[in-house]
Amino acid sequence: MTANTQISKVDLTKVKPYGDTMNDGMVELAFTLPVPYGDEGSEAAKELVRKMGLTEPAVVYSKDMGGGFAFFVLYGKCQHTVDYTDIKVTKIDVEVMDRLECQKYIEENIKRDVVVVGASTGTDAHTVGIDAIMNMKGFHGHYGLERYKGIEALNMGSQVPNEAAIAKAVEVGADALLISQTVTQKDVHIKNLTNMVELLEAEGLRNKIILVCGGPRISHELAQELGYDAGFGTHSYAEDVASFVLTEIVKRGLIERR
Question: Could you say which of 14, 51, 104, 137 is catalytic?
Fold first, then answer.
């Protein structure tokens, strides 16, 4: 039986993991336990996987991490299914334009340079995300906003206080403020993103600027819940952000510079 034949026979209302054979439920897990490396540790890992609801757990790799910690990789079989046909995901509703199409859209619809300020705010010292969107070289063959004709992109870098990012946006008359959050321990990104919205609202600026956030744990749904106009997660590039910002400027009637 070919892979295409198998896929055509899948019941999308009862989807479960696929390993060696269809619907075998096989999954792979990896985690560290605060227990000594050895047979007892491996048994503890398997017992934990059983309590997760997986059957036939097997440790396929383990390593002594030192200091009484051990790392494990296990296989197990999932017994649950999901109804794929019932899945609903909140997505950004915009037609993505490439760089040249964005430039043409600006020329025909906005007729002025669009100003975008970006930063990794709070204590976040990571710039990989904001650089991928803003810097001229971009990421993975996708040029950043600095290369877009008609967009003035200002990258403030990392560990930028929210107040400083807002002040810069006001100073340059930014159309959009892009906030990157990579550090997420103890949900620090939620607190920082929420603070940004609160500050903008306190200054009466929230409805005058397009507010976008992005990062590995950011979704469009989460962004909207926090008061942002859009959220971009992994596999997002400059053209995704630019397409949203440009069309939002026109949609909200923000063509006239503040």
Answer: 137
